[in-house]
Amino acid sequence: MNRFLCGSVLLVVLSSGISSCSLQRLIVGKKNAVTTTVADTNKVVTVVPVQNRIVLPEQDTFSNAPDTAGLMKQLVDMISPVYDSRLQYSSFSAKAKVHFESPEDKQDFTANIRLKKDTAIWVDITALGGMFHAARVYITPDSLFMINYQQKSGTRISLADVAKILPTKVDFMSLQNLIIGAPLRNGVIKDVAVLGATWLLHVADSSYAQTINYRKQDSVMVSDQVNTIAPNGPQATLRYDNFELFSGRKVSTSRAVDILNGADKFLLEMELQGVEFDKQLEMPFSIPKNYSNK
Is residue 293 part of a domain? Predict the structure, then answer.
């Protein structure tokens, strides 16, 4: 399997899904594009209440107060409704214009992403302005399936084994969270800081630590820095901007992901279009019989 292609596709839905091979091996150094059958509705005007709007009392004076255990507990209790808030949906789809940089190459392509909550993620990629069908990926909570149309091959690999071909582990929930714009991983709030117009949370689980920045104005997450607790692991910084309303849900349409994996640096920039929630989605996936299995 072409490792750059797999990494590029995963990077569309996960910040750390990178490989170091050149995309030129797949599409002769040209662009990738993923098209969508979903109508472009990112200009929708809605009167449905925004789901992720949480109103908190102003507590700027806390930033000047002593950091006592009682005060920190009060801050954590106040910010927990923001951190615990998640968009309610059954499905999500969007087209994404993507700019990707690796140590070896730079590429621009478009990604058609479809998500059925907790069930499946589907990504289709074409190249050369839609004239060349490059790849299709189907991800379930335990497996990744991929068709490489250029190499005429199909691949199935357990998500638990993806780290054998990519620099880091991949799990379905993190993929899903990145697509929706939620914190990449769930964890426990360790402490909170007040920085002017934002709330800064430090969250950790058994493997990762996150520094999450929420905008106090409307409770949206504007950045998420993720580090492995183990030293020298991959690091990722996710940035979210240009929030728009789609069916009462506030979604970032401009995103940037910076990854540091050892000495290698990667950049992914995404512009979402045609965002839709709760639509019936088709996820066609069939490996042609004459394709080889890898």
Answer: no
Domain of 264 in residue numbering reads as 3-280
Residues 6+ apart with CB under 8 A from 186: 173, 205
Q: How far apart are the first and last CA of the chain?
A: 6
Mutual angle of helices 3-13 and 172-180, in 10-degree steps:
60
**Structure tokens belonging to residue 243:** 């929030």
Q: What is the pTM of this model?
A: 0.76
Read off the pLDDT of residues 42-87 as tens digits, 9 standing for 90 and up. Answer: 433 333 334 444 444 444 444 444 556 788 888 899 899 999 999 9
Q: How far apart are CA 142 and CA 270, in angstroms?
A: 26
pLDDT recorded at residue 231: 86
Q: Is residue 290 part of a domain?
A: no
Tell me which long-range contacts 171-175 makes (C-beta under 8 A, separation of at least 24): 172/118, 172/121, 172/139, 172/140, 172/141, 172/142, 174/14, 175/10, 175/13, 175/14, 175/121, 175/139
The domain that holds 223 is classified in CATH as 2.50.20.10
Task: Indicate whether 289 belongs to any domain.
Answer: no
Instruction: Give, in degrees to the nearest 5, the angle at Cα 11 between 7 and 17.
Output: 55
